[in-house]
Amino acid sequence: MATLHLLLLSNNLFFIFSLFFQARSSLSSINAILPLKVQSIPSRPLTKPPIKLSFHRNVSLTITLAVGSPPQPVTMVLDTGSELSWLHCKKAPTTPSTYDPLHSTSYTPVPCSSSICMTRTRDFTVPASCDPKKLCHATLSYADATSVDGNLAYDTFRFTDSNLPGVIFGCMDIDSSSNEDEDSVTTGLIGMNRGSLSFVTQMGYPKFSYCITGQDSTGVLMLGEFNYTWLRPLAYTPMVKISTPLPYFDRVAYTVQLEGIKVAGTVLPLPKSIYEPDHTGAGQTMIDSGTQFTFLLGPVYTALRNEFLKQTSNVLRVYEDPNFVFQGVMDLCYRVDRSRVGLPVLPNVSMMFRGAEMVVSGEILLVKVAGLTKGSDDVYCFTFGNSDLLGIEAYVIGHHHQQNMWMEFDLANNRVGFAEIRCDSASQKLGIDL
Ligand SMILES: *[C@@H]1O[C@H](CO)[C@@H](O)[C@H](O)[C@H]1NC(C)=O
Ligand SMILES: *[C@@H]1O[C@H](CO)[C@@H](O)[C@H](O)[C@H]1NC(C)=O
Ligand SMILES: *[C@@H]1O[C@H](CO)[C@@H](O)[C@H](O)[C@H]1NC(C)=O
Prior knowledge:
The protein has helices at about 115-120, 180-185, 200, 300-310, 385-390, 425-430, and strands at about 1-10, 15-20, 50-55, 60-65, 70-80, 85-90, 110, 130, 135-140, 145-160, 160-175, 190, 205-210, 220-225, 235-240, 255, 260-265, 265, 285, 295, 315-320, 335, 350-355, 355-360, 365-375, 375-380, 385, 395, 405-410, 415-420. The chain has about 425 residues and is mainly beta. The site of one 2-acetamido-2-deoxy-beta-D-glucopyranose has 6 residues, from loops.
């Protein structure tokens, strides 16, 4: 993780950019783009018309669009935790999942004489620099210590009927040996955080929303202002902003304030202050579509684990294997007889945000471990994990717990809204057949 500050001249306005990048592990599949509904927004001249499209959820959320002229199809991970969008760019045509800048007449690399390249770049491992062709060269670093190199560039992003020219992104050379699964299906990542260089900020969208279905593994993404009365009311929680930079606080994330966690009616017996960021910024709560599950700081995770264990002791059998920790971070797993239909009734887990409660209920509280069986049992694990084991100093609300939840990121009003909804029927109402 690193921070970068850039100055850019764009649309006759100066923007100070704060670039943030972090690693994502992701696998994904391709889904079709559906017709867009375009309406104009009178009050914001720089705002693009709203865009509506379907996307795919598997381990990551992905959207399919086209980039360049003529259009090249790309599949990008939708990541509310990242700023700079990037595409796998190889200088020569390679795999189908690679965007080829040489075959796009609208591809324009950012020259290193541009103000984008001239300011100090704390978010990249090393400041953006001049390559031998005098183009802006950037290095993005991942949390797993790998990094990718490439050029900052502009090209047209195409959503069926709506073309967005001049989108700034990183045209990156990815070492394909490092991440085969991701490389094989995903062309890149679309950065959706609040940083100035993110896709949503560049396009000036006042808000965006998404709704992820359960079983179908698809969803709908809406960029811009849509006003559907059937969607109301959403419960809103304010976004937390801090004015001073702190080492562990990501100021361009969608940060909200967690105030407690409930299992059925029982609030975990912890002080509210445990959910607040400390003087280093550690302990912020982020809504992150780039992370699959939800992670809690150690003491909170332990309290939740104990309470959930207690309340499920007569319906679920714990999988006792001290050496098994699902994905290295989830250590509460259960054995469930394969012949049983569905899971037993589980207690709801509610995340109590300031002003709004998000209820995680039913089968999404557990995830089946693929390929692991014990006798006649399947193994299921609790879908909350321990941030400490992940090596992060934050609470992260992942997309798994946002299923069948309308999620609205209201940038204009600095708040995040949500409501339980069947995303498949919401999509039907929107004219998108998932
Ligand atoms: C999800 O991704 C995994 C790993 O790539 C793949 O095996 C699985 O088929 C995918 N599921 C769907 C529904 O696409
Ligand atoms: C959306 O609908 C609400 C309720 O009908 C209304 O108050 C609000 O002004 C509308 N917003 C826009 C942007 O049309
Ligand atoms: C659990 O949450 C679901 C969804 O919010 C709700 O319909 C259900 O009534 C809750 N169950 C209990 C026991 O509170």
